[in-house]
What does this fold into?
Amino acid sequence: MDAIEERKVYRLVLTGGPCGGKTTGQSRLCTFFENLGWKVFRVPETATILLSGGIKFADLVAEEVYKFQENLLRTMIQIENTYFELGRTSNKNCLIICDRGFMDASAYISKEKWDRMMRSNNWNPVELRDNRYNQIIHMVSAANGAEQFYATEEHSCRSEGVTLARELDYKAASAWIGHPYFDVIDNSTDFENKVNRMIECVCQKLGIDIGDRLSITSRKVKFLVSGPMPPDTAFPAFQDFEVVHHYLQCAGPRVQARLRKRGQNGRWSYIHTIRRPQQHGQSIEVRTQLSHRDYLNMLTQQDDAHFTIYKKRRCFLVNNQYFQMDIYKEPSHPRCKGLILLETYTSLTGDKLKAILPKFLNIVKEVTGQPDYSMFNLSLREDWNNTKKFCYSLHDQDDADVKTNGHSQKMINGKA
It folds into this structure.
């Protein structure tokens, strides 16, 4: 494989509410990746470019506002495409930071007008949300959790009060619900750590070893949820997806590889994930977006020791916390019947962690790091008591055979 094929082009949207730290975060992210030897392009915010020309929404009638938003999106797509093309022809790894993205505009227009705009321009919002960008990071407004730092004086196009800023922050985050790699960076730490958490999020998704350059403050936590599912009306705004996982054959026992097919309304995206042993205290996962053709080619490497995993994935926001809930579906191993798992990323622990969990779900217990709830183990065809493939930990597989195997279907279903 030559150097051109090994290059990475990573399209990141940095979004958020007013006074959330986007400008500072973008600058710091740019410096960080340039120091790694990457080429960094920063796509300017299209709305700021247009509004700085003297446009005032108060002076526009409804149809003019509609046409402005439509032309804003057309302009945004063209500007982004220019940078995306530069990224493809760069001779370095390339990070493209978009100051807001396509779906942000939906926060400023009614659903009826948004749907009309999508139809009249033949735009597919699922395609433009899920496949156009590799990752979305939402920087929560200082108006929500850091009110003492909220200010509008230094931004020529910003005049929102705290209440309106909170509303816009929620709408901006909700617009991206459902993107496969959507992270919300809240104000639970000071601003320096907030920016570090944002940079860390990007590095984790890219599989970059950051060593001790950034303090790691957040972790993925997982919870077992007991059915039956509450009605859809109990949830805040959500997006549902069909997800299919295939595990692939690997050369080494300490490596896991899988394919993911994720879709909504007949539109699919494809991801190849390689999970490698621990490096400098971190679990490294490298994700690569695939074309449909590459996905079909890689399916020929499927590992027959694993069932294909089928899920319904529900994505939603509660109190600025982004959750993914996986509802396992048939066909699958009986151990997966009725299984529902809830995941989120947070730096909170104990009672503070419990306080942010959705109250409308029957959460049985936390199962973070428990091998019985690992998708790798859940997909194994063999009974856990009779297999040597059970993975107690990605980093401890060498001594897995000497540990006691004590699993049961009752444990999986959260029953006594």
Q: What stands out?
A: Residues 62-89 form the longest helix (28 residues). The radius of gyration is 22 Å. Residues 270 and 292 are 7 Å apart (CA to CA).
